[in-house]
């Protein structure tokens, strides 16, 4: 019997015991589905979030005041309070770095803001951000309609605004918002642009954001006379210069902020891909967990397959005796049963891979928007390889036992 004949014989045996084959294949399918499904979900979410980080500018870094709210508590002691980054400091940094990078300034003017049109008003969930001329470019924010702020509007601080899609949906249903007026923060603003819809990935929605000129934001009175805190984003023209420019920016900001020698920075510099690096670490743990779950399921499936193959050997003892009497060698008998085990595993594995890809993409779509349909070819081929290995491991002992049967005793077997 050659290899092709052994494959045909294996398929005939599978067809003859269809129910047993289906049940065994389902066990294999569940193991592969859990393995491929979890890994597909992780890779799909990672791909979606990587696209989000890329759109935020991979070759850039942010400079912010250290400590966030600066109300941390360490060992029972209040954390050190650092001053906000002032407009003068941010502007000086921008002037010093203009030859080496594209610097944008932004200030969070107000959150939980109610915005009104002539007839409608929003929920108190709109954020207002003051931005300069480089903000949209550095953050890869695009306009759907309208225009960006002019140089005159930036310098004079005029009351114009660029609004997100949810603001438009709430205030101007089925109406072009360009040229319309909105009221917020005690002022009346003219809408000159609408932002592209971004969705709510990464825990927030830029669609509920309103951009105003930075100078306008500086003119709006603050509660308690608190000062604006400016965030600085530095975009690098050449990716290979990122670390060098970050080091130079640290030195310049220390000088601008007058941080004493030997004292820690009063600001923090964060690369735009630092969160992605954290995501890599988290996804690694998820992959390990998913692999363990899938492999445990496959271990149970392999034990079940081995048991079924042992039963098959006992049922076909006379058949083995006939084959040996007709000249089949021990190697050919072993090959026949191994192929049968591998084919069962592959059939179950193919079904499991398809189910796993669909399950993984469905999970990823629920958690991270905008990822599209993702096919993890690495895990597809890995799943098929694992199926073959399970088939070989589970089928070898039954095949070995079958090949060692005595042909005379086998022919007498009832």
Automatic annotation (TrEMBL):
Cellular component annotations (GO), alphabetically ordered: plasma membrane
Membrane topology according to the record: Multi-pass membrane protein
Annotated transmembrane regions: 21-42, 288-308, 341-368, 374-397
This protein's UniProt keywords: Cell membrane, Membrane, Transmembrane, Transmembrane helix
Record InterPro entries: ABC3_permease_C, MacB_PCD, Macrolide_Exporter_MacB
Subcellular location: Cell membrane
GO molecular function per UniProt: transmembrane transporter activity
Domain MacB-like periplasmic core stretches: 21-225
Domain ABC3 transporter permease C-terminal: 292-407
Entry annotated with the keyword Cytoplasm: no
Family membership: Belongs to the ABC-4 integral membrane protein family.
Name recorded for this polypeptide: Putative ABC transport system permease protein
